[in-house]
Amino acid sequence: MTRLSVNINKIATLRNARGGNNPDLVSAALACERFGAQGITVHPRPDERHIRYQDVFDLKAAITTELNIEGNCTEDKFVELVLANKPAQVTLVPDASGQLTSNHGWDTEKHQAYLTSMCQVFQKEGIRVSIFVDPDPAMIEAAASTGTDRVELYTESFAAKFMQDREAAVLPYFRAAQKAREVGLGLNAGHDLDLHNLQYFNQHMPELLEVSIGHALIADALYLGLEETIKRYLYCLK
Ligand SMILES: CC(=O)[C@@H](O)[C@H](O)COP(=O)(O)O
Ligand SMILES: NCC(=O)COP(=O)(O)O
User: pTM of the predicted model, to two decimals?
Assistant: First the structure.
């Protein structure tokens, strides 16, 4: 069964809108766990527009499922934060600072030496590493040479094409998954997955270990409530 890690960035966005502590991020993460989420994902960005660096310490102290910290390891503060918290998993995402949201994976060929050294930095501390990549077999093959444990497939293009042609949308991901299996990498996926496209994606990706989902899930929770929403996402991952 594919595991669901709930990305709680958007809960922090709501909290930050008024400068207080409503909604409380740690309580929300604990509720996600109670409702069945198997992990919590955060993506602290340098401007702290949603997740603040202190949130990561507070979450790590409170949650009992896997913490996945996503972010750009070229920022020293991010590396320090991850090493200080020792999450179950770090996901390396090559975002520029101030970027609206993540919009591409690592070029693992060009940055192979750098990524290899970063994998060692985190793995030495017992932290599983996942590298965010586009669904390109060449990127996955080069990722394997870095020593990473997993790759996370950037699913924006699948989600964008899903409504017009689901078979064409999933095909590059299916091929990417085959390559990941061939080179011995674990497989995660995320970005713009939702209640419309998730079940189809999961059914066509037999090796998928984990999805991280935030934006759509939190939006759905406005209508359905968090408990019912998580139940529906988990159903799609059976
Ligand atoms: C890495 C990734 O795929 C992103 O979806 C990211 O975690 C979302 O970040 P924002 O919530 O800042 O858009
Ligand atoms: N890694 C992807 C993630 O954490 C959430 O992406 P999204 O569901 O907010 O698009």
Answer: 0.97
